[in-house]
Amino acid sequence: MAHWQGPKSHTGAMKEDGNSPEIFGYKTHSCRKALCIAGYILSCGALLLLFYWKPEWDVWANCIRCSLEEADVVLLRTTDEFRIYSRKNVSWISVSALIKSRSDYPATAEEDSVFSKAIMKPSLQVKSIQVQKIRYVWNIYAKQFQKVGALEDHHTCSAIHAKFGSGLTCNEQNVRRVICGPNTIDVPVIPIWKLLIKEVLNPFYVFQLFSVCLWFAEDYMEYATAIIVMSLLSIFLTVYDLRQQSVKLHRLVESHNNIMVTVCRNKEGFQELESHHLVPGDMLVLKEGKTLLPCDAILISGQCIVNESMLTGESIPVTKTHLPQADNFKPWRMHCAEDYKKHVLFCGTEVMQTKADDRGVVKAVVLRTGFSTAKGDLVRSILYPKPMNFKLYRDALRFLMCLIAFAAIGMIYTVCVFAINGVREVVKKALDVITIAVPPALPAALTTGIIYTQRRLKKKGIFCISPQRINMCGQLNLICFDKTGTLTEDGLDLWGLLPSERNCFQDIHSFSSDCSLPWGPVFRAMVVCHSLIVWEGKIQGDPLDVKMFEATNWVKLCFIEGQGSTHATVVRPGPKASRAPVKGVIIIHQFPFSSALQRMSVIAQEIDGEQQVFTKGAPEIIAILCRPETVPSNFESKLLLYTAKGFRVIGLACKSLQPGKQSTNLTREEVESDLTFLGLLIMENRLKRETRPVLEELSAARIRSVMVTGDNIQTAVTVAKNAGMISPTNRVILVEANKIPGSFSASLTWKPLEESKSEDYGSLVSQYHFAMCGKSYQIVAQHFRPLLPKLLLNGTVFARMSPGQKSSLVEEFQKLDAEEECDFQALKVAHAGISLSEQEASVASPFTSRTSSIACVPELIREGRAALVTSFCMFKYMALYSTIQYLGVLLLYWVCLGNMLNWMINMSVHVSVSFTGAYPKLVPYRPPSQLISPPLLLSVVLNILFSLSMQIFGFVVVQEQPWYSKSDIHRYVPFLGLWVTQNSPSGTGLNHTIDQLNYRADQQLQSYENTTVWLLSTINCLIVALVFSKGKPFRQPIYTNYMFILVLIGQLGICLFLVFADIDDLYSRMDVSIVPRWVFFLLPEAVIENRPLWLLLKKTFRYHSKSHYKRLQRALEQDSAWPPLNETFFSDSVAISVEGNMGGHSNPTFDSSEDAL
């Protein structure tokens, strides 16, 4: 929302999804607007185009500042490093037709609702703006813009049941629909003409249009036509890609907007209507059968089983329970804490089954509609991606600014010289210099290179929706991996069961043996303590639950009627099950798994037996919930034994309920207390066969791997060791942070996870890895913020991490100048997120792999490095190409010969240089990421000096030839048309006919210098293209690019033919020799691009990287007291609030909950 500061302030802050853009109020000024319209006309639209690029200039020119309350135009500015402006017009919504009398007004909404506070009296209008598909209305009492399309957060659990349990009245629903807008996620397919106009209005293409018009005016037909063809090809490929994405996104959301739903109207009963009429506060009735949810809704009665694969990427049924009727003053989300989403049905998910309770039908209150929903937020993250802050693109702009500065100098120089010599059309000739120095083909060349890389990735099963991120993949130096399903197999295998009786562990039961598990409390827990469902004849649910239940050989049957109208589930022994003294067990009530609580529970009853509670979850949590006398004394050592072997361990517990207690009235805290410990269920999660080779390849390339998982920390460390993330000789240090009870401070302890095999810890000081859990990470971020970068520098295993903590961790790594890749939840935050799933949630990821293994990671890095090197090659080539032509032009002041060959060189190099593929091996260093770096600048400067010296050499030497004549060369060159003109020199090198040489007719000069300098420049460009086309170590050898080699050989052959061919004895009379100069280019390039040489120079001059990551690494290497092993630190009483940071950039309406057991 926007917070308006003071009655006359024109600024505020709009808070949305963790980002808080500033908002400024403006009012349109008629006189200013009239002057701007005149400026549009007088500038032939140039001023309008400038305002299109700079919307803040448009607002500043047309409007005057005012308060937000008086504003008809608002200007938004992001608070990140980009500080991007956007203009929004204020619109008015009339509700007068719906409020016909004063008595109708209070009935439109409760007094504390934003809907009643936004309606202005007596006009009955609502002031609103729309920002990134979200509507905001002006709160006339709070003097701020507030978001609509969602139920207010201040409602308590009891208030939601009381105010919305009976539904809205028809009038209330109509007013809310007008103010909120339709409940649709409308993403129309963008017409091709709109995409085309938007692409053409890019500043680069506008400059190309200016250049082409200038060339056509001077009859530079060939090069102008070539640039038009190349630009049209680039625009076509870009528009085609954008159109495909638009169609894909439209198909993703089109099914959401046309669904028939049943709602409950206050005093009017049930009604059928289309889903786009839904508003926040509506009472939605969920019927039996498969249903696609058109909105986010809070379940207030009954129970649902939904498929959330659209949001999580995992087709695992999730149980949703109704919101409790807690009678307290806490807002409902604060009361439910992190488990609030267990009561929320998210838009786009599929309701598979519904279970009614004693209140009859299953009901849900509409929480959010349209783009405010979970699915709407997913779509918005695609429509409005976070801007990329990549050094290459920042340096590219600086590079262009330098070229423009050089062009300005050359233009002034040209104007002065031509004015002194009395040459006509000085302005046109001077503008030519700009089109020489600033290469107009640069954006087309870079786009072509990225598109070819994207096609190579597609052939390897890697799909990209953000092509600009391909270059960023070339700089990745840290990869964050999820564990389950990414490094390890999706499925789990039961390994064994360690039962506990009378405070002692019994003999372990192996599931691989033929011996069946005997009937008992542990067996009953495995039979009922799960969230499985039978869907379409198959048992579906979490893989862990499926494996556990299948091991019992029992079968799950359909629902049976319980007390009143409630439903329960019964399970019975199957044909292969061992004999049991019961006919079956009824699952009466379920408390679903909670990632915050790290456990789940069920209330079950044997047929004709007593009710019992069964709980399973993280062993350390289960042990706390159990009566101490039932937990074995060697519990911790046994748990460490199996987790250290990489097993996934689940704790089991139970207790009997007192007869006569109504199970549905019990709270979760009452159910999950005073339990009896039953034992440990041990499961094996095997590594994928591709995991270890890929991680070894990344390690050899000095690319760091980090594991971020929801599993047990010891299990995660073992998997990291087995996968090769942690060497057997390295020490793992556990970082534990805890809040001190009764105070606001916290403690931080470093201790070895296991005893070191080496007595000399000092020898291993640089070979250690930190491991921490999500709770410790959050406490460190709050209380020990200065230590967080030091911990991340060697942090390898992060366990028990919530989705919000994963996103926060990725952002903290980015602050260390490290680029990351992660899975699903942090994909939108990472520089290059890779999804290994083809579910709908993967559309938010920049990259999606068809194969579900991490083998795609090195492939993406290889192609990213090749694309990045290609981009640098194109920048260097374009810089030298423009400079060579630029210097030649300023040297001669006349137009050159050979226009056809020059544009052929430029265009063919652009297209063919991108054909070179990626080198198959990852080397242990990355390509440069900065254009403004000593090697690159030195390379360009030295090549420019060589080019200039050879041009001057040719210019001078040709004048020393015996046949040289400054005034009379008609007898030598009539066929070449080498009439020296006073035309402005042009990098296009386009010929002018003799008819165009209409000035200084009495002194028509013809020049040997033109011919010499042009031939030298042409061959120079070919050599530069060859020298800059790097092969190893990031791209394949240049000779593998057959197209590029054929292009260079063909063009060099044409040049040599023009130099040495004997056409009517003309060329033999010229006797102009071209010095073979490839040695001069290869020698400096070989020296400049010599990595060992630069490393030696850095070491000699003690140059150190200014990267925060490197500086911190050097500081810790010199700190003998780091890490502080077996020490405890205490924080101050002041903690840094990171609540927004922990989930600020994840989906604000949904967080996936990886099974943290």
From TrEMBL:
It is found in: Membrane. It catalyses: ATP + H2O = ADP + phosphate + H(+). One of its GO terms (molecular function) is P-type ion transporter activity. It comes from the Eukaryota. Its main location: membrane. Keywords: ATP-binding, Magnesium, Membrane, Metal-binding, Nucleotide-binding, Translocase, Transmembrane, Transmembrane helix. CDD domains: P-type_ATPase_cation. It is a multi-pass membrane protein. It holds the Pfam family P5-ATPase. One of its GO terms (cellular component) is late endosome membrane. InterPro entries: ATPase_P-typ_cation-transptr_N (IPR004014), ATPase_P-typ_cyto_dom_N (IPR023299), ATPase_P-typ_P_site (IPR018303), ATPase_P-typ_TM_dom_sf (IPR023298), ATPase_P-typ_transduc_dom_A_sf (IPR008250), ATPase_P-type_domA (IPR059000), HAD-like_sf (IPR036412), HAD_sf (IPR023214). GO terms for biological process: intracellular calcium ion homeostasis. Residues 147-220 form the Cation-transporting P-type ATPase N-terminal domain. The chain crosses the membrane at residues 34-53, 223-242, 396-421, 433-452, 875-895, 935-958, 1012-1029, 1041-1063. Belongs to the cation transport ATPase (P-type) (TC 3.A.3) family. Type V subfamily. This is Cation-transporting ATPase. It comes from Otus sunia.
